[in-house]
Design a protein that fits this description.
651 residues, Rossmann fold, 4 domains, 6-stranded mixed beta sheet, 27 helices, 13% strand, Malic_N_dom
């Protein structure tokens, strides 16, 4: 993007200058041009140029406030076509916004526009008191002030100056009024005064970030241009703008990522009176709004290149980071054949929100274990409309599970009575459900420490027939590479056999992400430079794997961490190594090193982490970390489903 400032006040000279630059640019965003000249400049440039020309001061405000209006009218249970809308201000943004509201479904006869002299009437227009653009919204009504116009109005749209609306004026409006006071930095009426003006609900938006519902053009730019440029659109037309507004409105109705909530001080962000448009920091704006604009360009004939919207959406999401690109591979695999997934801590709010996303995206069929009443009440309070399967230990026949748990653990000191007691714990119940094929996979650990969450699955589900050990693996995504780190959560002091098996499990996991594994067994020694018990373990493990004809990936060690990941070292000093490219599977010599290593890489190296993913289990079970976000639960759910698919579970 180039910021080009013109020392010119003649509209025709500005038009000629911009036209002359057309061969250089894919689109032109006009900024800070006052009315009425902005209308003339944009209109002529749109007609003469074959690339998008967009005046952000007009259309940015229109699109973002339009999205807010769609949701505000829904929440207030009012039809857009019935809204009586009053504008304060009749400049470029106000006129463009009024026009755009018509495209969304509002009626022109219901729009009253006021300038500094009062209501714009046909009488004033006939006397030449207003310019041709204001005349467009002149009404055949008596002359009056903004206060007169607001009496009985459903919506106030302020694009003028601060402090001109009183609480008395707000009280004169219709029931449950909608107030968009967007003058900056001081709104036409401040947030607290508007909310306190009356006893019913006031839906309030401003242009300020320190209040709920900030109408800010950053929600539209650059996402609208991104969609237009990627399909080589000749213009940004009304259909594209409407598509952007409707996509923004729809996004506000979805569950808000935890990272966005944290960015705003953990204040509740849930579709309703105080949340009618997404926050500017929400990363989903890119791959929700941009594809909608691109599709509208294609459908309306403005595009000169066609795109597959699903592929395009994935490409956009990948631009947000390597981890999203990697997870998209697994998400798509999961959606191809969803499985029954137990969420053991099913009455936790995050688990319920994750279950909704898992169900909505078609990743799995979630089964929530927990208190039926708590789950239902939480769903209602969050406004989540879906019908998950709920297994309440107090209302479920646990006899078959108690019988199976007794059979499995009776020689480990578990009696039938104790088995019944254990099944009141969601981790034991979920584990038995998976072991008995009543579910295909399981997630737990969100509200437990890792060892206590891991213990029931290990005891009940156990490791696979061809595995003796389980291990915890993290995928770390950097800007241009990914690495899998093991073991970070399970085996404290592994011997050579454990290290070898963990390496194989981790290599299998890498392939589920479409990554061809190259494994390095790490130490503080390079290929025998130090010889002691600690360095011999990874050396022996690497040798064991190289001698195994069933191992079909390059593996070497022991080696230092920088040797494993720096190509120049592998090709130079250690050109004899089995690795001809940097390793992407890093196997640490013990749990302490693994846990420290992945956390340093994540925090200091700026990597995004996915995991821990539990490998080596007989059936898919993954143990979350305390404090994991909803997106982490959804990611691990996808991994668990793909595990089940590849193991033929649930078929």
């Amino acid at each position: 993007v180039f910021d080009i400032e013109l020392d010119e006040e003649d509209p025709q000279e500005i038009i000629r200058t911009v036209e002359a630059m057309e061969p250089t640019f894919g689109g032109i965003n006009l900024e800070d041009i006052k009315a009425p000249e902005c209308f003339e400049i944009e209109e002529q440039l749109r007609e003469s140029m074959s690339i998008p020309v967009f005046h952000d001061d007009q259309h940015g405000t229109a699109i973002i406030s339009g999205a807010a209006l769609l949701n505000a009218s829904d929440i207030a249970e009012k039809e857009l076509e019935d809204l009586e809308i009053v504008f304060s201000g009749a400049g470029a943004s106000a006129i463009a916004t009024a026009r755009f509201y018509l495209s969304l479904g509002a009626r022109k006869e219901n729009i009253t526009m006021c300038d500094s002299s009062g209501i714009i009437t046909e009488e004033r227009a006939s006397h030449g008191d207003v310019n041709e653009f204001k005349t467009e919204f002149a009404r055949d009504v008596p002359e009056g002030s903004l206060e007169d116009a607001l009496s009985g109005a459903d919506v106030f749209v302020g694009l003028s100056v601060g402090g001109i609306v009183s609480q008395k004026m707000v009280r004169s409006m219709a029931d449950n009024p909608i107030i968009f006071a967007m003058a900056n930095p001081d709104p036409e009426i401040n947030y607290e005064d508007a909310k306190a003006a009356r006893d019913d609900t006031v839906i309030m938006a401003t242009g300020r970030s320190d209040y709920p519902n900030m109408v800010n053009n950053v929600l539209g730019f650059p996402f609208i241009f991104r969609g237009a440029l990627d399909v080589r659109a000749s213009e940004i037309n009304e259909q594209m703008k409407v598509a952007a507004a409707r996509a923004l409105a729809e996004l506000a109705r979805k569950d808000v990522p935890d990272a966005v909530v944290k960015a705003y001080g953990d204040q509740p962000l849930q579709y309703g009176h105080e949340y009618i448009i997404p926050k500017p920091v929400d990363p989903r704006v890119l791959f929700e709004i941009t594809p909608a604009v691109a599709q509208a360009a294609v459908d309306s004939g403005a595009a000169r290149a066609d795109v597959d919207i699903d592929d395009y959406t994935e490409e956009l999401e990948a631009r947000l980071g390597k981890s999203r690109e990697m997870m998209r591979v697994v998400l798509n695999k999961a959606k191809s054949e969803p499985k029954r997934l137990v969420l053991a801590e099913g009455d936790d709010e995050k688990m319920i929100r994750a279950a909704h996303q898992i169900d909505d995206q078609g990743i799995a069929h979630p089964v929530l274990i927990g208190d039926q009443g708590i789950i239902t009440d939480t769903m209602d309070s969050l406004g989540l409309e879906f019908d998950p399967e709920i297994v309440d230990p107090d209302e479920t026949d646990l006899d078959p599970y108690a019988e199976r748990l007794t059979e499995l653990r009776q020689r480990k000191g578990v009696t039938r009575t104790e088995a019944e007691d254990l099944l009141r714990d969601e981790n034991h119940l979920g584990s038995v459900m998976v072991e008995m094929d009543d579910a295909d996979a399981m997630l737990t650990g969100l509200t437990h420490d890792y060892p206590s969450a891991l213990r029931p699955p290990l005891q009940i589900v156990g490791t696979a027939d061809d595995a003796n050990y389980a291990a915890g693996v993290y995928l770390l995504a950097f800007k241009n590479r990914v690495v899998f780190c093991a073991d970070a959560t399970v085996n404290q002091e592994p011997d050579a056999d454990v290290l070898a098996e963990v390496t194989e499990h981790t290599a299998d996991l890498a392939r589920r992400f479409n990554v061809e594994p190259r494994a390095a067994l790490l130490s503080y020694s390079d290929f025998g430079s130090v010889d002691n018990e600690g360095t011999r373990k990874p050396r022996e493990a690497a040798q064991k794997l190289r001698e195994d004809s069933n191992v079909e990936f390059p593996v070497d060690g022991e080696m230092q961490a920088d040797t494993a990941v720096v190509e120049e070292m592998l090709e130079g000093t250690y050109d004899f190594s089995e690795l001809d490219e940097p390793a992407n599977v890093l196997v640490f010599p013990n749990l302490e090193a693994g846990n420290i290593g992945y956390k340093l890489l994540q925090r200091l190296g700026g990597a995004e982490a996915i995991g821990p993913m539990l490998v080596g289990m007989d059936k898919p079970v993954h143990v979350l970390q305390r404090g994991d976000e909803v997106k982490d639960i959804v990611n691990l759910a996808s991994v668990a489903v793909v595990d089940a698919q590849e193991n033929g579970i649930g078929e």
